[in-house]
Amino acid sequence: MSFTVPPNLEAEIDELITHYPVKRSASLMLLHAVQEHFGYISQEAVEWIAKKLGLQPINVYELVTFYPMFRQQPVGKYQIKVCRTLSCALGGSHELYKHFCTKLGLDPHQHGLQTTKDGKFSVEFVECLAGCGMAPVMMCNEDFYENVSTAKADEIVSQCK
Amino acid sequence: MTTQETAKPAPPAIEKIKVKVDGREIEVPKLSPDYTGKLVPTTMLQACDAAKTDVPHYCYHPKLPIAGNCRMCLVEFGTPALGPDRKPVMNPDGTPKIAKSPRPAIACATPISPGMEIYTKTPTVKQMREGVLESLLINHPLDCPICDQAGECKLQEYSVDYGQSASRFVEPKVHKPKAVDLGPRIMLDAERCILCTRCIRFTRDVAGDDALGIINRGSYNTISTYPGMPFDNNYTLNTVDICPVGALTSKDFRFQMRVWFLKETKSVCTSCATGCNIVISSREEKIYRYTPRENDAVNSTWMCDYGRLNYKWIQREDRLKDVLVRGQKSSWTAALSEIAEKLKQAPTGSVAIVASARQTNEELWLLSKLKAKLGGISDSIERTGDADKLLLVADRNPNTNGARLTGICFTEMGINLPKIADGIASGKIKTLIVFGEDVTKHGISAELLGKLETLIVSDILPNATTAAAHYLLPGCAHAEKRGTFTNTKGRVQKFMQAVQPKGDARPEWDFLHDLVYNVTGKNGFLTIEGLFNEMAKDVPAFNGLTWAALGNTGVTVTI
């Protein structure tokens, strides 16, 4: 599959670049825009962005590999991010994570992001989501959930169509 | 006729300021050149350098932009204290009171100021260095016994000074990629890397190929190229030289020889007319590698991969090793006296000389003496390739200017070659002397060579001309003799002998001296030093030079 950037995305990107005095400063914004559109950042996308900003691909690749929020592989339709930083860990986030994995048929002992075979769900641990008072917290795509019990987890999964 | 770069106007005098390094006052310029030569404030590390005080460092390199990431050069310092009236506070004994900074600073990136005191030997500084080193060694594999860098490794050296006998680290080490093929000439061991970014800065800011970067995060940081884009420019092997540890290794040199066995000889690269200063590393008459040697007038501290790897021909099996007279093995004495007799009897104008611009100044000068005596004509042969932006020039002969200055060829090289060919064809030229070139590739065919009464050839490797020679005199590679070359900018640079000549081969200047003495009666230069000094008196461009005055980095003459 060849990598093509639709005209409206390219227009958005061109506009983003104008926000910065130096083109290179727009790197992160471009990566976000591309990931938002394609769901992940492919090697072709890295090369396309580098060309757009007049950089070498390695300069963009450094960023992609540095930030865990940037994905180099496609992810599920629904991304479940469970916080594992201190308050949530104490509040039971590991049990919550294990529950999601078992429910969705994933390995709870494996490191990093896992996606179900049907490509519907991705589950992963993340660091602090800034809701420590309501631990454990999690996100499903852009929605934020607090005080997530296993029952609430089941409800969240069932809402994902 | 020697000039010390007089063309440029003298730069404006730089203000000097006084600082103290470990209690000793020194005067240093306020500004010093950075890696591009631009004047920037002098740093504490440069001041310590001027005071001959070692400050350990990994990421700092005088010819690279400053990164300040390794923290090894942390020092303590103080500056003159100012009172509320902004006037210096004095001690009772009249000396300025020094306010010691509560925090250390990295010497490589902190500018000096007047009256500053730098402390490099305090217990705190020692402790900081030990701490930094311990942290760098946390994930280091400690595989020195199989590491090529062992013996020239900054981690090893500083471990002697600041290391601990045993590691306190009990956790499992982070494992990173090993034997990563970065490019056609470079191998990376990411576990040995201390992430000083010297290689990244070199290839981005000096070589102009932004090919390397640091990928991943935290303890998984790794030097990398972009996937599918190999690290392949003409300067990649310099990253191996500047890598302070064994992370980047040369595919050509890795696992070949422990560096402490290598003999180091100061020499000059012969792959183009730039004449990069090099060190030849050899052991038991075998050359293992070339590495660049600092000479700011020529190559800074760099050299190109093309020149660096162009040494294997010296060790080729088919090197010419025997003196041959009409195909029969002979001796130097017999061959040289026969040649001398023939040349003495040769009528004026019947001798032509084709000498390579890969021969040394001394050899070319001796040949020009021979030419003058015999009233012959001479020329040399051009050798060109693609130039690049940094060091490699189009002229691939190391001594083109030497050939011009000694009168072997004109400014335009090769214009006499057709005349020589015509002369042989018409029978006017009966004797041809060829040094280091295959003339059959340059308009003097093997058929023409067959018409000659005498063909005297000296070369290193066999070719069609050596095959036709009546007298074949085996010569030496630059690594097997001493001499000088004049580079493209007119810098006369000497090189030393690293290995012994193969078989019966002798340095060309050595047997040419015998020959010239026998033919012209001139003498007085039995040693290379004497020969050079004699030549310097005779060749106008070299007037005033002496072998000794050339030093290690040469002298620029007007060309």
What is shown here, in short?
Chain A has 161 residues and is α+β, with helices and mostly antiparallel strands. Chain A has seven helices and five strands. Among the domains of chain B are: 130 residues, Roll (Ubiquitin-like (UB roll)), CATH 3.10.20.740; 234 residues, 3-Layer(aba) Sandwich (Rossmann fold), CATH 3.40.50.740.
Describe the structure.
- The complex is a heterodimer of chains A (161) and B (559).
- With 161 residues, chain A is an alpha+beta fold.
- Chain A has 2 domains: 7-66, Arc Repressor Mutant, subunit A (Orthogonal Bundle), CATH 1.10.10; 78-159, Glutaredoxin, CATH 3.40.30.
- Chain A has helices spanning 7-17, 27-38, 43-53, 57-66, 86-90, 93-104, 150-159, and strands at residues 78-83, 114-115, 121-126, 138-140, 143-145.
- In chain A, strands 2-3-1-4-5 form a 5-stranded mixed sheet, with helices on one face.
- In chain A, helix 2 runs antiparallel to helix 3 (43-53).
- Chain A starts with 6 loop residues before the first helix and ends with a helix.
- The model of chain A has no long low-confidence stretch (mean pLDDT 94).
- With 559 residues, chain B is α+β, with helices and mostly antiparallel strands.
- Among the domains of chain B are: 2-131, Ubiquitin-like (UB roll) (Roll), CATH 3.10.20; 324-557, Rossmann fold (3-Layer(aba) Sandwich).
- Chain B is 23% helix and 20% strand.
- Chain B has a 7-stranded mixed sheet.
- Chain B is elongated and about 95 Å long.
- The model of chain B is unreliable at 1-6 (pLDDT under 50).
